[in-house]
Amino acid sequence: MKDMTPTPHIGAKFGEIADKVIMAGDPRRAKFMAEHYLENPKLVNEVRGMWCFTGIYKDKRVSVMGHGMGVSSIGIYTYELYNFYGVKSIIRTGSAGAYQADLHCGDVVIGMGACDCSAYGVQYNLPGTFAPIADFDLVRKAADKAESMGINYRVGNLLASETFYSDDKEAWHKWQKMGVLAVEMEASALYMNAARSGNRALCICTISDSLVTGEETTAQQRETSFTNMMEIAFDII
């Protein structure tokens, strides 16, 4: 394959990004993970402030990178990683809002599937509705790791919402009644890009707030204290 790097959105050269990538919406969370989990992290991208670091975690070469907010943003970055940088596995670590009463701030949700209310999948011109799902091996390993850590976690469906401030304030109840665990903004595009490129993906989220109880965390907590999902991601990538 012809070397297409650097890309319009990633300044790294081919080979500077590992074939295993852990991502976060906030590039500062990516920087936090690189500094706390990687040996000798090297900054390989800073285009648009979307930092990417490559280093070593327990003898594995791993990159950590931001992806921004929404399906459009993660769609661009993960497409380029899968198709131009030879990346095989991507795990998104993110925050999510709980739709179910038994989920509370700090709990971990492993996204087995990702409902979608965007038009991202229209590009594939499929004769039906595609169901974005995670890589089963990564799901199984994540659940086993969470179990061994003794933390509160759930495995199930996420909603990747294209809107943060919805004009329909009660729409979330409709997803709740279908058993959707929590809402975030990126998993469906990640899963679709992985499927289309023949690669692996998983979204692991920490509950940052609850639409059921009204509890919420601060921006600082979301950046640096959601370490359970980080540990899971680094252990299984």
What features would you highlight for this structure?
five-stranded mixed barrel, single chain, 237 residues, 30% helix, alpha/beta
Task: Walk me through this protein's architecture.
The chain is α/β, with parallel strands linked by helices. It is 30% helix and 28% strand. A five-stranded mixed β-barrel has the order 5-8-7-6-9, surrounded by four helices. Strand 6, helix 3 and strand 7 form a beta-alpha-beta unit. Helix 2 runs parallel beside helix 5 and helix 3 (136-149) crosses helix 7. The longest helix has 14 residues, at 71-84. It is globular. The mean pLDDT is 96.
**Annotation field: number of helices:** 7
- Count of β-strands: 9
Rg is 17 Å
Distance between the termini: 25 Å
Question: Low-confidence stretches at least 5 residues in length (pLDDT < 50)?
Answer: none
Q: What percentage of the residues does DSSP assign to strands (E)?
A: 25-35%
Q: What spatial order of strands do you see in the largest sheet?
A: 5-8-7-6-9
Fraction in helix: 25-40%
Give the integer mean of the pLDDT values: 96
Which secondary-structure class do the elements indicate?
alpha/beta
Shape: globular
User: What pattern of helices and strands is seen along the backbone?
Assistant: EHEEEHEEHEHEHEHH
Q: The biggest beta sheet, please?
A: 5 strands, mixed, barrel
